[in-house]
């Protein structure tokens, strides 16, 4: 099917596209995403406030995230003043790539605006090859579980050293896999990011949404402290203290 990039839909809705340099040949696909979603194309991975679908195009396995339409006030704000969630996700993913932190390879984003009002935005990445999420550590046996936890502590420290803190650093947003070179993690859902100085206390607080046993907290603290030059015991105490304030810690195996 030939997807129409120009015509009536573009008279009614202005579309803004940005593509990663490696994927300039994806322009036609990107412009056609709203119509593909409307036609039910792809496999739904998650559907809630936002929707994720797996799609294939040009031999590439992709994940397309459609962000929900904001309320009327925010439609004006996003339409004129603020970058969309899709743009923030894309920009943050490029920042992660620059410092060597894993995240699914960004392809690009599309904003759709109707007049001065923002409508929807879409963020596209290559599909991750990581088969597991952090939360699986509590439901499956991994003989390399300690290595996964250490890697999370080390990679988080790298992010914080560069002044980046994921603001939704939860059990479902850290993917991992075992490779010949060790454990690889990829971090997803990047639209909410703190950017600025991160001291020991603020850094340890960033782990508060991750469930962890005392042993896991010890590993996280040791790796985090080693990278950042902090005291490991103090980091351990802070991580446990901040985690204890979180409601519903059903997976913390204390």
UniProtKB/TrEMBL annotation:
Residues 31-254 form the Protein kinase domain. It comes from Paraprevotella clara YIT 11840. It holds the Pfam family Kdo. InterPro entries: Kinase-like_dom_sf, Prot_kinase_dom. Transmembrane segments: none annotated. SUPFAM superfamilies: Protein kinase-like (PK-like) (SSF56112). PROSITE patterns: PROTEIN_KINASE_DOM. This is Protein kinase domain-containing protein. It comes from the Bacteria. One of its GO terms (molecular function) is ATP binding.
